[in-house]
Amino acid sequence: MKDLIQPSTPVDGQLQVAQVQAVAEAWSPQHVLSWAFRTFGKQVAISSAFGAEGMVLIDMASRISKDFRLFSIDTEFLFAETYNLMDRIEQKYGITIERVYSTLSPEEQQRVHGEALWTSNPDLCCNLRKVEPLRRKLGELSAWITSIRRDQTSVRSGAKRIEWDAKFGLVKVNPIVDWTSKQVWRYIHDHDVPYNALHDQDYPSIGCTHCTRAVRPGEDQRAGRWPGFNKTECGLHIIEPLPASSQVQAVTAEGGD
Ligand code: SF4
Questions:
Q1: Which one is catalytic: 125, 208, 211, 234?
Q2: C-beta of residue 234 within 8 angstroms of C-beta of residue 146
Q3: In angstroms, what CA-CA distances link 16 with 40, 168, 171?
Q4: What region, left, alpha or beta, does residue 255 occupy, with left being phi > 0 and alpha being psi -120 to 50 degrees?
């Protein structure tokens, strides 16, 4: 297959999506990753918080490319088990995780916004520690790769394998968007992939220490995130509709090996 041209503008990126979006729905996750690496080169990176799904993607990527880019938003409130896993990933896969931080240290945040902002205004806290750093990082890229799955939250249920991310203005690639949790864990066990030790202690979804607890029997997989708040997303994957003027007409689907 002829390699595609690296998009250099948002319009290029939207055209790129329009060209492959429909056909990519039938691609395997490995095929989606290969397409992303071939199409965007060093302008694409995997974004991960090192949940089970992220570990699947990292392992798959390591079998396709030896020097893929991987970044993580480090809120500075992560579990010791998560930091430990990050060290193990760097050793096992021979890569350096690009760690992205808020411009405010935890101490500065407390000085400016008061103590324990996550209890009074978790949306603001997530914006300061996750969304703004992510926006800054994505400004360097033409595409990002995520490990979201459609059945995780209602916000994610309409996600495509390859889509235009209007919120951040770049291509968004979701190779395992149609996978189930069972498929994720089967891959992890079959390929001996490292994972966060907290998953074995009833933490199916892991974020910051302040906003994550173990789930109880019968609870939803994400019930342990922001307990006590009507909040299921930190804002990274919330879709904002394109303005009508910038919609790109779908063109003939083409692509793949
Ligand atoms: S998950 Fe909690 S502690 Fe972490 S950034 Fe969001 S509100 Fe703050």
A1: 234
A2: no
A3: 11, 16, 8
A4: left
Pocket lining for ligand 1, CB < 6 angstroms: 75, 77, 118, 122, 125-126, 129-130, 207-208, 210-211, 234
pLDDT tens profile 26-85: 999 999 999 999 999 999 999 999 999 999 999 999 999 999 999 999 999 999 999 999
CB of 171 closer than 8 Å to CB of 24 = no
Structure tokens at 231: 């909040």
Distance CA 173, CA 35 (A): 10
- In terms of phi and psi (left: phi > 0; alpha: psi -120 to 50; beta: otherwise), the region of 252 is beta
Q: With b meaning 16 or more CB within 10 Å and e meaning fewer, what string describes 232-252?
A: bbbebbeeeeeeeeeebeeee
Instruction: Provide the token pair at 145.
Output: 């790769």
Closest ligand 1 atom, CA of 128? Answer: 5
